Amino acid sequence: MLLTKSQLAKANEKELNQAAEAIKAEITKRASNAKEKVLKELKAVAAKHGVSLESLIGKAPRTAAKPVRGAKKAGGKTGAKVAAKYANPSNPAQTWTGRGRQPLWVGEQLTAGKNLEDLLIAK
């Protein structure tokens, strides 16, 4: 099934896709066969020395399916909302809990000479 350059140039899209799939399947098959051969050889060497391959390297882990992108993992961020600790004196609607990155207005207030205690919300 090897195709020459001229055969590739004459092939339609369907034929090219079929050839690509056949090539991918053969590459996968050869890689799998190579791994099986190496594993068999390693087991033989280990047995020759009176040990099992599993006792040397442990059992091969089963390959788990990759998690779906964006899926939530168990035990994720499930904390309660934290009350605001600081407020912008010029716009009290702008608040900050004191956690995470400082909002721009906090930086502006600090640059203007105020300190964080001046921005605390009175209780």
Automatic annotation (TrEMBL):
InterPro entries: H-NS_C_dom (IPR027444), H-NS_C_dom_sf (IPR037150)
GO MF entries: bent DNA binding; DNA-binding transcription repressor activity; minor groove of adenine-thymine-rich DNA binding; transcription cis-regulatory region binding
Assigned keywords, A-Z: Coiled coil, Cytoplasm, DNA-binding
Segments forming domain DNA-binding protein H-NS-like C-terminal: 76-121
Native source species: Candidatus Dactylopiibacterium carminicum
Coiled coil: 6-37
Principal location: cytoplasm
Protein family membership: Belongs to the histone-like protein H-NS family.
Name of this chain's protein: DNA-binding protein H-NS-like C-terminal domain-containing protein
Transmembrane segments: none
The organism's place on the tree of life at top rank: Bacteria
Keyword DNA damage: no
UniProt key word Cytoplasm: yes
SMART domains: HNS
Localization in the cell: Cytoplasm, Nucleoid
GO cellular component: cytosol; nucleoid; protein-DNA complex
